[in-house]
Amino acid sequence: MASETQDGWRIGVLFSQSGTTHVTERDHLRGTLLAVEEINEAGGVLGRPLVPVSYDPGAESAAFRALARRMLAEDEIDVIFGCSTSASRKAVLPIIERYNGLLFYPSMYEGFEYCENLLYTGATLNQTCLPLAEYLLAHHGRRIFFVGSDYIFPRESNRVMRDLIESKGGEVAGEVYLPLGATGPAVEELIDAIRIARPDAVFSTVIGTSAHAFYRLYDRAGIDRAAHPVASLTMAESEIAHIGPAHCDGHILAATYFQTLENDANRRFTAAYHGRYGSAERTSTWSEVAYMQVHLFARGLARVGQMDPGRIGRALMGEEFDMPEGRVRVDPETRPLWLTPRIGRVRADGLFDIVWGGGAPTRPDPYLATTRFEEASLREWA
Amino acid sequence: MKGARRIMEELRRARVLVLHPDDEDGALLRDHLRRLGCEVAMAWPVPRHLPEEIDTLFVSVDDAPVEEIAATIEARDLALIAIATYESPTTLKAIYDLNAHGVLSKPLRPLGILTQFTLALYRHRYEAQLSAKVRKLEDTLKGRRLVDRAIRLLIDVQGMEEDAAYRLLRDQATAERVTLISIAEEIVAAYETMARLGLGRGDSRAPKK
User: Fold this and answer.
1) Buried b (16+ CB within 10 A) or exposed e, A275-291
2) Is A163 close to B8, i.e. CB distance below 8 A?
3) Facing B37 at nearest CB: one of A113, A115, A370
4) Which CATH number fits domain A2-123+262-338: 1.25.40.10, 3.40.50.2300, 3.40.50.720, 2.60.40.2550?
5) pTM (2 decimals)?
């Protein structure tokens, strides 16, 4: 251990293997470790392997904060790959700033944040919500019911989505928030509220175990998913597999990656993933982004030649990469990535039919500073 | 457009000037304001006059004498965010004297800029609303005193009942399509003139000038 520690590049890995978000964070962990192994098998970075130091925060924000501090202050780690929710990112951010580290954050997020100690590799709301709002109105109807887990990402995403739906002529048929991790009667009450409101579609930012319960009960309630699906930004292949595809087909996901994407980088990625974790396992927007950001980091580290978080971050600004989800580019002004928006619908085998795809990467707009809500993105971005 | 989105739209409509040296902090602030979608100009040292269109000012208060900044601002109606490095009494007094609506502490970081910017615009607008209300109340109060005095004159000099005096004023104002106050003003002026000429009856106070 000691010699490897001295010879390798130590990196922190901070994803939960238990708790409400265990499925998506397991994907994050898997994508991260797969990329690390690939890089090491290819000779590491400048001849030295990446040495991941991984802790399990158990989906608790306080644990995220404490473990990030331990990595930065005691383990002498400068770069962390971690956090799956905006709640955990917000908890860790002041620590990362104080120790001047670098956090690679791989989830879709709500924006309105800029920190030079972070690299945001997930989708911003303009990249997902703008086409999704239009798609729902065009294919399912104008009455949309909003649900979410009660923390910052769902609250902000729903606010933006509400504005989008309303500015495009739609209507809010209801809005309900569940406590993080709620699975019991609260979810049943939510299903009742939806049954009474009879919306054309549901926009859901419920996450983790609550979302699994919600999808199962939505199925049990017998609502026609082909006509009235649940659309989300997070419920990807691995969670659909966890719930059971038979309970989920017809639901919609707006994301930048799907396992069913056809390109060489994705074929290599899915083959490697299946080889490493089993052929029944699914790749997702969670594992792919986590995988991608380790490769981004490795290129930055190779360029800088030393574990200098500030310089590695700066080295990546404006850089382009070919990833399983296609060409991505780090936006030097706002720090998240140019990504290609897509909309998928769950099919019977639990993978997604891509029902709409952008023609090129879209600029991230975390402050919604340049996004025109009236823009016909389905047509103009295709 | 609703609450949260409107706040961002208002920030983006603001015409911002940053009075700060073009160093690391200045560049960070300018870049972040642009990231939020705002139009930003920078100037340093503090210019003698502000461009006309500016309505929001971020100003470094430790790097220039407060009198100089105050002279530049003059009577301009601006939302003002002070940028402070110290918490020395001198800095505190500058924040106080400039009537800052928000404060940013150096070294600057992106987190907090949006908050202070929003707060400053809100407080500036609220302050303007309150001032307008105070002015209106003062005018009303002044008018009210004038009406009272006119009624008192009609009672004392013409021997009218209070109700009748008020009705006379009101009907005349309606007939002439002017305010009650301006009728009252005319009556008071007329009696004052009469009194000055020694023709007054009852109102025996000395003429005003």
Assistant:
1) eebeeebbbbbbbbbbb
2) no
3) A370
4) 3.40.50.2300
5) 0.83
Partner A contacted by B5 (CB < 8 A): yes
CA angle (B165 as vertex; B164, B166 as ends), nearest 5? 90
Residues 38-97 of A with CB under 8 A from B: 93, 97
ipTM above 0.95, yes or no: no
**How far does the CA of residue B127 sit from the closest CA of chain A (Å)?**
27
Same domain as B105, residue B19: yes
Residues of A with CB below 8 A from B109's CB?
97, 115
The candidate with the shortest Cα–Cα distance to A140, out of A130, A151, A132, is A132
pLDDT of residue B63: 79
**Tens of pLDDT, residues A34-53:** 999 999 999 999 999 999 99
Question: Per residue in A129-178, pLDDT tens?
Answer: 999 999 999 999 999 999 999 999 999 999 999 999 999 999 999 999 99
User: Can you list the positions of beta strands (E) in A15-121?
Assistant: 50-55, 79-82, 102-105, 118-120
- A114 to chain B, any CB pair closer than 8 A? The answer is yes
